[in-house]
UniProtKB/TrEMBL annotation:
Localisation: Cell outer membrane
Record-level GO BP terms: Gram-negative-bacterium-type cell outer membrane assembly; lipopolysaccharide transport
LptD C-terminal domain: residues covered: 280-664
Official protein name in the record: LPS-assembly protein LptD
Superkingdom field: Bacteria
Keyword annotations from UniProtKB, A to Z: Cell outer membrane, Membrane, Signal
Transmembrane segments: none
Source organism per UniProt: Candidatus Enterovibrio escicola
GO cellular component entries: cell outer membrane; transporter complex
Start and end residues of each Organic solvent tolerance-like N-terminal domain: 40-167
HAMAP family: LPS_assembly_LptD
Main location: membrane
NCBIfam families linked to this entry: PRK03761.1 (NF002997)
Amino acid sequence: MAQYSQKSLVIPTGVCLTSEYCYLDKKEQVDDVHNTPVIIVSDHAEAKANVKAIYRGDVVVTQGHRTIKADVATLRQPENIITAEENVYFYDGEISVYGKSLESNLDTKETTVLDAEYSMMCMQGRGKAKRLLKKGTISYELEAGNYTTCPNNDNSWRLSAGKIEKKANEIFATLYHAKFEILDTPIFYLPYLRVPVESGRLTGFLYPSVHLNNKDGFTLITPFYWSIDPKHDMLITPKYMSKRGLFTRVEPRYLTDVGKGSMVFEYIGKDNFFSDLDRSWGVNWKHSGLKEHWKYDSNYSKVSEIGYFSRHNDSRVGKREDNTLLQTGEVSYRDNHWDGTLSVRNFQALSNTASVYRILPQISFNYYPPITEDGFDFTIPSQISNFTTDDDSKPDSTRIHLEPTFTLPYNLPWLNATAEGKVLYTYYAQRNIKSIESINGTKLEATVSRVVPMTRLHAGVTLEKDTRIWDSTYTQTFEPQMQYLFLKKVNQSSIYNPVDYTVGGYDTARLQTDYYGLFRSNQFSSVDYINPANQFTLGATSRFFDDAYKERFNIAFGQIYYLARYNNQNNTSIAYSAWAVESESNLNDKLFIRGSVEYNSYLNKVQFGNATLEYRNGHFFAQTSYRYVAKRYIASTIMPDNIKLITKEGISQAGFITGFPLGKGTSLQGQYFHDLTQDKMLENQFGITYTASCWTIGLSYNEYQRARININDPTKYANNITLSFSLFGLGAGANTKFRFRAPNRNMLGYRNPFGLNN
């Protein structure tokens, strides 16, 4: 029922008022409409009871958050239909419309506006229509209309059609006899077109992209998204390359009661550029899930040939810097005081020199009873593993490992201390061992039992004080820590390990020693070799916090002091390890610096190091980086014969990345990486992007060094040119800022190593 008032009303404009009303069921919606009063304000009114009422002069009709404004309006009863003419305005929190005339059913919310000019309130979009029909809450129909996400007075692009429909609960709009226009000029015509106007999942073609490079030639990519049901979908991406043929990628995803997963299938038939291959394919499957006490994980990847990723740089199965592909699966069961895991693991080698072990299977069991009141903790990790390989120069083995561990912590606000003791017991049953000798000429044994006791005492203190630097107050902490570690020396030469045997170890490799690695009990990734130790480790960290307690700077440094050195360690006459130093600073939330180095003071040489400097200010950023690894350090981790294939003088690489606006919507991004030891470019990339209010276009050039098995082989480069175009406001990411990305998933590129950016 209408209520009449002379009180002035405020006309809402430009505000999204998406109501919870549209989520109610139909019965609740009807009750809600009938219970919402209609308020009409005008200069003059004349009415005939239960027939109609005519209002003239600044007429404003409101019902909840719906508003109609006009010079003349008529309310027909009992139909509860209002018509309006002259300077008509309609608003319901989701759309605002100016038009010549209007008819609206106040019960059903069906509204028709002629000669309409509309703007969407809760998403980007505006346009005109000869006739606009709004059904209910979120269903629209336009005749002789157009649509754009550009702001007012900007006709950069628009979609025009004889008819446009947007149904409730759909993210796509359907256009009949559609034309795409740029600057009011028709570019192409389609009798039928569907475009996304909201974020969500709906079957249809996604935006195509175009690339150009010397290997693929002209490339057209036309992805198609298939929303199968709420728990299954699929992305199908055909990629036509003028020099190579058709490459197809299919990516299904699923959600089940036992987890979620995704797959990638890639295939190309006859490759005209690589004529030695009849076909090329890759596959990946990932799954993870939890159900009550059970946990499931799998990751399986396989490709048709070892050079797959150098041929397909944009593959989603893996990356071109990968040396192996993982093929693993595991099932775990967890309870309050124990857990167990059954896993299998295999690898596909991606080089002729790579040799890998399969683990078929591995059974892990961990027991951890409740911690006592005084904090005493006892655990028994255990594992049974079966290792096999196709390399006849390497042994196979079954390994059983148990590691009962006792831990007693002691903590105060300024002190933390831990006493730990364990016994590492390992049993090996080794096969195919006749022709295998260690570096010193010893032989493997078929069965080996090894027992290594370990004692570890660790303590750390946190001290702090206020200090002033450059007229600013900081809280400085000083956090020294000390560790004593003892691991009994036992003869391990009868086990295939990475110290006594060249590239030995079933699943064990030497770990890089950084500052935090100084405090590890084992310097290897697994238990095929347990380094003997009788040593102290001393280290300290200092941090600086500003008056908002934001960390601005830290530095950590440490060194190991050996009470005893053993014959299998590098130099038994040296009583200390190399210094490990790490530091990071955030000077003013714009300038960031991070670096680490390992320095051998005995040799007066740096073993490895890296540094990154980055400056950010608004849309401008620049980052320069450097990394170094000494040849001697690399040689200690691989076969001596392979060092000549990998490097001549170690690794010394520098890079620079930047991105900044050039003004008026144009931005530039570029990067360059150089190998200083060979004085050769590794990779460069240059891109320029123009971003308007409702569209963007980007052009990029990328050149990179192809992978080489032998560093002495001639250097070859690949390059590509990419042109990308996007319209803002159509579908997911409509309101996100455009950022240029290289199409080839480059190996180097931008990295964010900073931790002090909180």
